[in-house]
Amino acid sequence: MSTRRSRLSKLLIFLLCWLTCSIAAAELRLASWNIQNLGWNNDKSYEAVARVVSQFDFIAIQELMNEDGLTALVDELEAKTNESWGVMFSAPLGTSRYREKYAFIWREGVIEYVDGAVLYLDDREQFAREPYSARFYAPELDLNFIAATVHITYGERVTDRTPEVRALAAYWEWLADIYPEDRNQRILFGDFNLQPHHAAWAPLWEIAQPLITEGATTLSTHDRQYANLYDNIIIPNDHNLPITGAGISKYPELLTQTTPHYWSHAKARAHVSDHAPVYLLLGNAALHPMNNGELHVPNRSNATQTPTAELRCIDINTASAERLEALPHIGPARAEAIIAGRPWAGYVELIEISGITRERVREMVGEGVLC
User: Please, where are the H alpha helices in 179-308?
Assistant: First the structure.
């Protein structure tokens, strides 16, 4: 009898450990991204876009211009991740002068489409592009969630955007009516073209909340500086989502760190997007790392020359001595001198170090190895 109890106890312990580990391992990464005119013949680097998207398990896309653009992105994504990705997209929305689509894409091994795929019944014609939604299921988390997305019209003035933002409160309630059993798992992804502290949000903030309240998501003309917090993810005040994090993926810096190229904001805006993705982490999730590898970008006059694969972007104010030694003409002594001289206001100041001439600084800058 005691042996039987011992076996039962061990079995129960095993089951409890398995259940605990399974719950701890459950994770999901959701994102929203305006991929600036995706599908137009505009020198888009689909490889770079796919690299950024590969951080996530699900992404709501705004500014999809045609199906060909989505096909090109998913082809790159599947080649990069060796996984199948699900796809759905809306009809073209907008005016006769300008129309775009919404899209959802997801890792099919992680997320399942359930139902929905509906446009808002905008009988009052409040939106230039009616919001789009569908229901999905995440088996690891045993969670249904409602994904909705919208791209608020930009217009010529801020006042052109506020009517649509005010109308989002009615849309939010409509979503609850359409998906009543999962109303606490509604998630609205979008490019709202309005900062979350603007007064026009007041009706929606009574019943919902933004996940991103600090920082900015649009790329300025200056590297590492961002202009406006226009992109966001909105959830119910009474949600039951297992949220563990949310943020902005500053993709030019990430591409610079994970590819043998320096991605200035000018190059990123020209070949990827003028918006950065925003994301939501559920369960025990951290962002997937971007895959390393060679990156092809169409030639542009503002593109930095490509360094060798071994020389990734190096910041003279933060890099280790070992990383600094990867720079041309920099040995252990000069690497230590660079560290001792921090902070440096600019590359040209490196000429203060013995043996580093202006010509050598120009060589490093020309090779694109310096951040």
Answer: 202-205, 251-258, 265-271
pLDDT tens digits, one per residue of 67-103: 999 999 999 999 999 999 999 999 999 987 899 999 9
Sheet of 143-151: strand order equals 112-119, 132-138, 143-151, 186-191, 231-236, 208-210
CB contact at 8 A, 69 and 50: no
Cβ(139)–Cβ(113) below 8 Å: no
Within 8 A by CB and 6+ apart from 327, the residues are 311, 314, 364, 369, 370
| In contact, 208 and 172? CB cutoff 8 Å | yes
Write down the pLDDT at residue 314: 81
Which of 210, 208, 198 lies closest to 160, judged by CA? 198
**123, HSE (Cβ side, Cα atoms, 13 Å):** 2
Task: Work out the burial of residue 205: count CB atoms within 10 Å of its CB; fewer than 13 is exposed, 13-18 middle, 19 or more buried.
Answer: middle
Report the predicted TM-score, pTM, of the whole model to 2 decimal places.
0.75
- Taking the C-alpha atoms of residue 19 and residue 133, their distance in angstroms, rounded to an integer, is 32
Structure tokens at 369: 């190895």
pLDDT digits (tens, 9 = 90+) for 99-150: 999 999 999 999 999 999 999 998 889 999 999 999 999 999 999 999 999 9
Phi, psi (deg, nearest 5) at residue 269 = -65, -35
Q: Which of 324, 332, 331, 333 is nearest to 347 (CA)?
A: 324
User: How far is residue 12's CA from residue 15's CA, in Å, rounded to a whole number?
Assistant: 5
Gyration radius of the chain's alpha carbons = 24
Beta strands 99-107 and 58-64 are: antiparallel
Instruction: Indicate which residues carry an active-site annotation.
Output: 151
Q: Is the peptide bond before 343 cis (omega within 30 degrees of 0)?
A: yes
Fold of 20-283: Deoxyribonuclease I; Chain A (3.60.10)
For 355, the 3-state DSSP assignment is coil
Of 137, 230, 221, which Cα lies nearest the Cα of 190? 230
d(CA 161, CA 90): 22
Segments of the chain assigned to CATH 3.60.10.10: 20-283
Task: Evaluate whether 251 touches 295 at the Cβ level (below 8 Å).
Answer: no
